[in-house]
Amino acid sequence: MGNQMTAMLKGTLEGVVLAVLAVRPAYGYEITARLRDQGFTDLVEGTVYALLVRIEQRGFVDVVKVPSEKGPPRKVYSLNAQGREQLEEFWRTWSFLAERIEQLHTDNTDNDEMEK
Amino acid sequence: MAAKWIEMVTGSLEQKKQWRQYKARVKALPEPYRGAANAVERYFMVSGSITVDGETLVTMFSDLADLWERAAADGTPVREIVGDDPAEFAETFAQAYSGKRWIDKERERLNKSIDEAEKGEPK
């Protein structure tokens, strides 16, 4: 993954993970696997786990420990009211940014065409 | 080194007990997870990228042990846990914990100093 992709993903991954959890509760490995299936192929489990820890510390998710056949219990994360608010905020910020950047893109393209 | 370092940052017996539990969990891990866990732990000790609040510290290491045990149980390759840049992983992980780091205090101090300096500016 290029540097630019890594940097941009870093800023948006929290919103992305909250969005995944808004669909249904999941444990760390499931979240990573789901995102990898959706094209975030270079995403690693440790990164997602670190993020889950952070959103847990900030109170955006509720955590339930579910016994597992082998190994330690799995921590299942579900979005709570505070997490939903945070996700709403993320979508607002994202829409604003995407719109502004797309506008710049369109302006650039128009300029290029006029020069031709 | 680790023992001395932990004495410095944790005051309570409960935290010492939790630290010993973490060490025992790491010791019980199969390779290559044990080696990876020790390497990440060492990095935290020397890099100064973690909080110095003992309670946050033991929570963090206990969460790390969960991660390694889960990876060992699922057979997840070590590289899929830490990614291409393990130091970056370690730092992101440490930043997830809300304890105050010395740099946070220094940031506050800088902000206050600039506020003070601003007051002296001609209007």
Automatic annotation (TrEMBL), chain A:
A Pfam family annotated for this UniProt entry: PadR
Residues in Transcription regulator PadR N-terminal domain copies: 17-89
Originating organism: Microbacterium pumilum
Record protein name field: PadR family transcriptional regulator
TrEMBL record, chain B:
InterPro entries xrefs: UCP029876
Source superkingdom: Bacteria
Pfam family, one: DUF1048
Protein name according to UniProt: DUF1048 domain-containing protein
Organism, as annotated: Microbacterium pumilum
